[in-house]
Amino acid sequence: MAVSSPPTLQDIARALGLSVTTVSRALAGYSDVAPATRERVRQMARKMGYRPHAWARRLRQRRTDTLGFIIPTHGPRFSDPFFSEFLAGIGNEAAQHDYDLLVSTHGPGQREIDAYERMVAERRVDGFLLVRTRVDDPRVRFLLAHQVPFVTFGRTQAENAHPWVDVDGEAGLYALTQLCLQHGHRRIAYIGAPPDLMHARHRLAGYRRALADAGVPQNPAWVQVGDLTEESGYRAAQVLLRLRPRPTALLAANDLMALGALAAVHEAGLQVGKDVAVAGFDDVPLAAHTQPPLTTVHQPIYDIGRRIVAMLIALLRGQPLPQQQVLLQPRLVVRASCP
Amino acid sequence: MAVSSPPTLQDIARALGLSVTTVSRALAGYSDVAPATRERVRQMARKMGYRPHAWARRLRQRRTDTLGFIIPTHGPRFSDPFFSEFLAGIGNEAAQHDYDLLVSTHGPGQREIDAYERMVAERRVDGFLLVRTRVDDPRVRFLLAHQVPFVTFGRTQAENAHPWVDVDGEAGLYALTQLCLQHGHRRIAYIGAPPDLMHARHRLAGYRRALADAGVPQNPAWVQVGDLTEESGYRAAQVLLRLRPRPTALLAANDLMALGALAAVHEAGLQVGKDVAVAGFDDVPLAAHTQPPLTTVHQPIYDIGRRIVAMLIALLRGQPLPQQQVLLQPRLVVRASCP
DNA sequence: GTGAAAGCGCTAACAG
DNA sequence: CTGTTAGCGCTTTCAC
User: Fold this and answer.
1) Which nucleotide is nearest to B8 (CA to C1')?
2) How far is the CA of A58 from the C1' of C9 (A)?
3) Residues of A whose CB is below 8 A from B114
4) In chain A, what residues touch B260 (CB-CB under 8 Å)?
5) What residue is closest to D2 (Cα–C1')?
6) Which of A150, B86, B132, B193 fits a disulfide with A128 by CB distance 3.0 to 4.6 angstroms?
7) What pLDDT, in 10s, does the model give residues A152-206?
8) Minimal Cα distance from A272: which residue of B?
9) For helices B35-48 and B20-28, angle between their N-to-C axes, nearest 10 degrees
């Protein structure tokens, strides 16, 4: 049997001796079509296996029903367990509302903002999801300037200018640092994230505030900056462990760096959880299975993904958002690495 | 300044006193338009910031210039470091050829095949990328039946019916097992993947063949099956470590399970690399930073992503593929966990 | 070399 | 209740 091209409204109309308009309205469930006709149309549509052509409809409606997500980094070794979970969240929520998710990258040669510019100019998407927000985020500036709807995971400098969901990183690191202080640690080092990232500021501030509140002196040498990879956490920890007096606790701005720090501690012949405490942020699934298991701050990343998609879709549909900005309180997950 | 809607061919034509047709052809670089006119059109287009409307063009050309990728699993804790790297690969290659990448999921309530059915029926994509191939893969059956172009990462039962790229998992596990044998191990256990996955068969076969070739007896109790998560690797290793005589080496079908096995070995008070060897498969970045670093089999997942996209696009453009099927030889990465 | 006209498949304003 | 008409923005015959 030959493969024929999929049926269109035309085909149904012809088969039934009706006009395309009537068929369209019958299927859309409009009330101004006779019940009997509606039924006939529906049955014929089912029989012929009719499915609306997504693009024809979109061209007409001047909407794309598509959300854009541009991967915030490129390069061959972009490997973030956190990320796949987030993607599952946004993918599921988008699918549930019958929205498509257009995922793109900015290749090695391309500037990140060009990828946004292109999607907007060629009207490929109705709005964007942003992650890894930066303090003065060029993407935010661009989208605001062009009045393109978007929702971010993470705050920016323009706190009230756009909807976002974030986890209170300052509270998270405050709690983590306090935990260490309660266990008698006084030389608590911090492996931070690149300072242009918004969450880097919050988390660092939480760490500092906890120390200040406890009246514990702060040593600039105890604060290192990594790039969120295991490798950078590993190297930062090596530096910190060579200091004398040696820090007794290493807090990292994310789990991947904390994993690197674990390796460095082991390699230095020290015992994690005994000689040196280590903790992270994110609570990736792996954190429960390191040796020893990693103390960390949980972020409900899957739910956050769902949530920002729901917000963006509400925005696109002109529905009012109950909350423009959502700050979630993090949950401390205490395991053996930082008892 | 008010935001006006983006310029169309109409707008350019009007501004220049030309017809839409001519403008279209000038911009497309057709030769049958006067050089002077072409130049005028080009300049005006640039001046007005004209960008073609992606969907209008696609509707007309009856192509979508979009590739579909449906995440092979759902649920909140889908966290695979391997996956984000793959996505970066397919994203970059697609962007380079000016193709869009439509990423979708099948939500909890939806059957996986329905997601494919929908994308095909509503003509949202031109072709698909598939990963985690199964032996008798329903997706492959569906796409073959409907003559939808696709390329898989991983073989299926229908080896010659579709283009694929795969890493020779049998050779990988053969080499890994041989490495253990050379170091005197005789009780080598295996934590396999779900048997419906195609790669599970190959890897298990490699393990078995290496033992058989060496004349080492095989014990069914030494072969466990996990679901590719750390958690399942952890539990499988616990079972294996309780056996007497105890296996001296644990090989896992992927790195995530190997990481779980590392934790179980530590927890049992044994030393990895000394009392018990552990190895994995994938070579995720983390594998270099476990304690001890993990011996594994490297898969160039980023390049594989790029490659299958390149193949799919060639297919869609009707270009002949130099190779319909590509079997890559894996590279053994020997680290301290399995010396 | 240029333009008029048709149409991709769908929806919406307006008659009747 | 149903059909006619128009058009989303673009490409592609086919005349002139």
Assistant:
1) D9
2) 10
3) none
4) 289
5) A22
6) A150
7) 999 999 889 999 999 999 999 999 999 999 999 999 999 999 999 999 999 999 9
8) B291
9) 90
Residues of B in contact with A298 (CB under 8 A): none
User: 3-state SS of A38-51?
Assistant: HHHHHHHHHHHCCC
Contact (CB, 8 A) for B327 and B168: yes
CA dist B129 and B141 (Å) reads 14
pTM: 0.94
What is the block-wise mean pLDDT of chain A (339 residues), using blocks of 10 residues?
74 93 92 90 94 94 95 72 88 93 86 93 96 96 96 94 97 98 96 96 98 96 95 97 97 96 94 96 91 94 96 94 96 93
Distance from CA of A214 to the nearest CA of B (A): 34
Rounded to the nearest angstrom, the minimum Cα separation between B37 and chain A is 24
For A260-269, write each residue's pLDDT tens digit.
Answer: 999 999 999 9
Are the beta carbons of A100 and B100 separated by less than 8 Å? no
Q: Please, what is the angle between helix A138-145 and helix A112-121, to 10°?
A: 20
Domains and CATH numbers, chain B: 9-52 (1.10.260.40), 66-166+302-329 (3.40.50.2300), 169-299 (3.40.50.2300)
* Nucleotide at minimal C1' distance from the B9 CA: D9
SS3 assignment, position B247? coil
